[in-house]
Design goal:
single chain, alpha/beta, 4-stranded antiparallel β-sheet, 17 helices, about 15% strand, globular
Length: about 500
Amino acid sequence: MRSRLLNATIYASRCAGRWLKSTTIHRSAISYRNYASGSPTEKPYYVTTPIFYVNAAPHIGHLYTLVLTDVLKRFQTLKGRKAILCTGTDEHGMKIQRAAEKARQNVRAFCDANFKAFDVLAKAADIQYDHFIRTSEPDHRFAVQHFWLMLKHRDYIYESKHEGWYSVSDETFYPQSAVQLTLDPATGRKFMASQETGKEVEWTSEINYHFRLSTLRDRLLQHYADNPQFVEPSTRMQDVVQQVTDGLSDLSISRPVERLSWGIPVPDDTSQTIYVWLDALINYLTKANYPFQLPTQEHTAGWPADVHVIGKDIVRFHCIYWPAFLLALDLPLPKQIMTHAHWTLGREKMAKSTGNVVNPFFALERFGSDTMRYYLLFSGGIQNDSDYDNIYIIERYKRLQGTLGNLVTRVIRGKGWDVRRAVKSGQTDDSADGQAHRSRLRTLPSAVDAGMARLQPGAALKSILSVIYQVCRRPFFFPPEHSLRDIRPFDGALYPF
């Protein structure tokens, strides 16, 4: 493996950073996705979820992320553009290694069993994914080790002693200023924890490899300035800019194999394992055929991603570390990163330790896929957290039944319904209400498109529902002699414009 990767590095450096398919690399263990043959084609729309840790079962937040991503993909498909959705599981790192040990299972067998729940969840929710990646797959290992050697070739990696607080749960180091002494009220135990997440941290001192993150501060800030909508919503963009402006420290990107054996080895130093976040982030490139790209067809597998959809808890990794890694290799950056808020239960943060969680499989079984997708999209937060409750699901769905369902029922069952008459009536209704309604219908597509372009699918949905509500109220704008059983008031509302 080492000689093949070194060949790839030399070849890629001669090609000035272009992703090319090198005949010097043996690809017997690599799956190669060909989206084009012959002439260049339009870049597909490429949207991704984060890859999910397999140390625990899926929760409602995973389902929300999947639904948001799927809606973005379906909208592009509806507009006639080829779209690719990538999701999957993150199967490396200390968190997974310890979870397997706790379960008294071989770590490979542990991952092989646990990834299935996320695949089943995606299918149960009718997520139309194109790729389901597992970071334990051979093509991903190859991509990560190639990426590592390219960083080293450009002198972005060096070896040094690292001391600091490490959170296994968050899979990240924290400086002294970001941790605090915390008391567990249930047991009275005191421990050091991250101020940001509340997760326990442990002191580590080790020799490992570092990435020269600090040298990319100015380039990151320039990218943010040139692309002010790189992170949505704007408040999180502002937070990211502030963090980078305040300064960046170099990033530890490996762990000694004695501490972390379950992961991808550093290609030219098997005593070290590649940092799980560097490993995980490269998954977006793996499924875009990195590093095997044909000349003039570098984008036919989707890269650069149009949108990464992530939760607000992993903004730093996706909006600072990931673009920095890509800038170091002069690779295209994702166009946008959509960061959504979380779900609470009883206005309290969901936590497996307290049992305050929602099982998405139970929700899908009880309410069905369409109902859950509608509820999550309608009520889910992008900027602010949303509270989950079965009562809310029922209320939202009943209102939909009473508007869209009622409207469809009236039209389908109405004995007096006549399409020809409806078209005529809609075209000749010059009343103020008729004109206003035609205006709403004509502007609806652009309103939906604008909401989706802002990465606000919930807002796009609500703009559609607003017109439906207006249609359902139209009978009340007619004189009293018009019975509610009379279908004619709907003529102008429903005609195909």
